Amino acid sequence: MKPYVYIAHPIPEHVESYIAEHCDYNIWNDSNEKIPKERLKEELKNADGAMLTGQPVDEELLAATENLKAVSTVSVGYDRYDIDALKKYNVYGTHTPYVLDDTVADLIFGLILSGGRRIAELHEYVKAGEWGVEPDSAFYGYDIHHSTLGIIGMGRIGEKIVQRARFGFEMDIVYHNRSRKPELEETFDAVRLELNELLSRADFVVVMVPLTDETKQLIGEEELRLMKSSAVLINGARGPVVDENALVAALQEKSIFSASLDVFEQEPLPKDHPLLDLPNVTLTPHIGSATQKTDEEMMMRAAVNMVEGASGQTPQDVIKEQR
Ligand SMILES: NC(=O)c1ccc[n+]([C@@H]2O[C@H](COP(=O)([O-])OP(=O)(O)OC[C@H]3O[C@@H](n4cnc5c(N)ncnc54)[C@H](O)[C@@H]3O)[C@@H](O)[C@H]2O)c1
Ligand SMILES: O=C(O)[C@H](O)CO
Asked: Which residues sit with their C-beta closer than 6 Å to ligand 1?
């Protein structure tokens, strides 16, 4: 008998065909509405595996399952998993590392460029028909090349950003990470610093840590105050890693030059959010991995993880806390 799995969001046809070869399955096919939690609990009651993304996997959900062996998210970040609950119910949590690294690093570079050279701000200016006879200095930004890039969270994606920064833009690299990375230091002439020192030295500060109890609000009022008034903050990680109120205040006071954000405390960003009134921001709707090619690779990788787990194997991308 094939294992039974439930997929809580639409998936591409070829991914569905792969799942159909190995499992009996059902899918929530409505791309405009998330599956309600009560319905999800019912659907997972007899499932051996599940693919669900952007929804909490917590004690309440897991307690409602009888056979579940693996949950699979189509994302590398897995902050929606209650890891203690996964362990308690003997359910593997999986994610999709590696396949999105270059795509996310590309976007982060776009955010760096936009933040330094005011691309989003001046795009709005031109589109509003305001381009007149102002002096060149009205459009000055800051150079990216030969400046200092600080990465907070030097993991898989951080390394791809550094590659672009060092070899493309000849930037100096400083980083803050749990562990030292001697090979990376050698390859990219990178220097590991304490967080506060990185914040005061870097021209561009990229936040790329996972969201955990430890990293929640890692960048708050005090940390922002350490940054140069010419510095740009780029958050490509998760919204709650940065204290958004403190960031808005810093941008209003111009104690930092600008911020480029792909992630927010609340997504979608509320229509009355104060960030929307600021000129010195570049805002994107959580699109780090959003190319069709990468999205499909992530979907496939997540499907393989789910099928492996539902079939009683150890999935290839079990989260590190369960390895
Ligand atoms: N914007 C997007 O669309 C998008 C896309 C992909 C990933 N992300 C986010 O980026 C995160 C990083 O992805 P990754 O694949 O590079 O992960 P990774 O695990 O390879 O790297 C994270 C790094 O952060 C370090 N770290 C963790 N906690 C730390 C702390 N308290 N202080 C200092 N360093 C710490 C780890 O040691 C690791 O080196 C994901 O967890 C996800 O939340 C966002
Ligand atoms: O973590 C990830 O993979 C991205 O943020 C998409 O959710």
From this structure: 76-77, 97, 100, 104, 153-158, 176-179, 208-211, 214-215, 236-238, 262-263, 286, 288-289
123 shares a domain with 60:
no
Same domain, 93 and 153: no
The amino acid at 307:
V
Strand, coil or helix: 28: coil
- How many residues are given for the chain? 323
Q: pLDDT tens, 229-244?
A: 999 999 999 999 999 9
- DSSP for 68-119, please give it: --EEE-SSS--TTB-HHHHHHTT-EEE---STTHHHHHHHHHHHHHHHHHTH
Do 304 and 186 fall into the same domain?
Answer: no
Report which protein residue has its CA nearest ligand 2's atom 3: 75
The residues carrying an active-site annotation are 238, 267, 286
Which pTM value belongs to this model? 0.98
Six token digits for residue 291: 């190319």
Q: Tell me which residue has its CA closest to atom 7 in ligand 2.
A: 75
Burial of 194 (0-12, 13-18, 19+ CB in 10 A): exposed
